Amino acid sequence: MNISDVLTAVLTTTGVVFFIAGTVGLLRFPDVYCRLHALTKADNLGLGLIAVGLMFQADGAGSAARLGLVWLLAILAAATTAQLIARSALTERPGELKRSASVDWY
Amino acid sequence: MASLVFDITLGVLIVAVALAAMLVRDLLTAIVLFIVYGLLIALAWVRLDALDVALAEAAIGAGLTGILLVGAAGRLRKAGRSRQRRPSPLPLPLPLPFLIAVVTCIALGFLTLSLLRHAPAQVVAVVPELAATGVSNPVTAVLMNFRGFDTLLEVVVLVVALIGVWSLTPDRRWGGVPGPLHRAQPRGVLVYFGQLLPLAGFVVAAHLLWSGSAGHGGAFQAGTVLAAVWLLAAMAGLVRAWPVASARLRMLVIFGPACFAVFGVYGALHGTFLAYPDFAPGLWLMTLELVLAVSIAAVLSLVVLGVPRHAP
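^ inputs. structure came back:
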């Protein structure tokens, strides 16, 4: 159990915790916008931590760079699709935003 | 020990997701679960050390089939037909289909485990001949060289599937540009994504194609990645497909299998159909894979785009 294994374990566990948080948000949040918020924030950070944790197990800089590239592409895709989903929800179901904005959550 | 736990968890997850996809009532939810199932099967292939199959499963089984099904669900919704919930499954007595599935699973398990005792024979037969093929990945050698006929017919099957999709065109639309008219906000995220990702996708596809010779990859995987990024650019409105009636589109579609068939005939004139020449067989193989990848990309994109929906 050397230092890189410990780092991998810690980072990937933290990443999984973020994924769990994002999934709980996906299941429990009341409307589309809150769910998108939970998904993109938690999953991007969770995936980043897992990718960085796995970099310590990669053999060589090339594999580590590929893991980083996977994270980068996943962030790009998640951000774009979150924007598109939010915009399509806004145009197709405008009532949902008004409803959630008018409720007093506090 | 840890890998056993992982494998058992993966197996249970696969069965659970498959059951969920069958039993859930909403159509779109079932499609999303099917995509998840495809990705889990790709993981299972990785655990079985079949990385080329895993790449193909993730790209085509999960990605491409997922897009096709989501598109179909969208068109059903527009036709007002997806609000109809799927009827409650299993009108038969509950145990009967379950019993048939369990018996089939056990029979397949026994067959697979008994085959494992003879499995190394295939690898043992292929490996000594690898040096003559010019590539060092046995999967690529089998696909493109030893069983090249099967690959040729597979790509022809793809072209036939495309013809099947095109045959659904309404008469008055025949010959037009396939697919819906995609419009995106000119300075929006989809256009940005559609300009950025094809660059990365082109590099990834080239890498998958090139690494098929020594590592894992191949024509189908590279072709699917190319199709995916081209479709993204098309959905952003940055590129438009050529009309279905245009000669250059049809040339592009049949270019791959035609080249492969011509190469086969050349081999037949020198002995065996689809025999590789002794001079640089690896180079011939990679060139054929490149040509096939381009055709596969064209066919898959056109299948996803669908029928022409506007007058030519």
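Chain B touches chain A at residues 188-190, 192-193, 196-197, 200 (CB under 8 Å). The mean pLDDT of chain B is 86.
thumbs up if we can close this ticket
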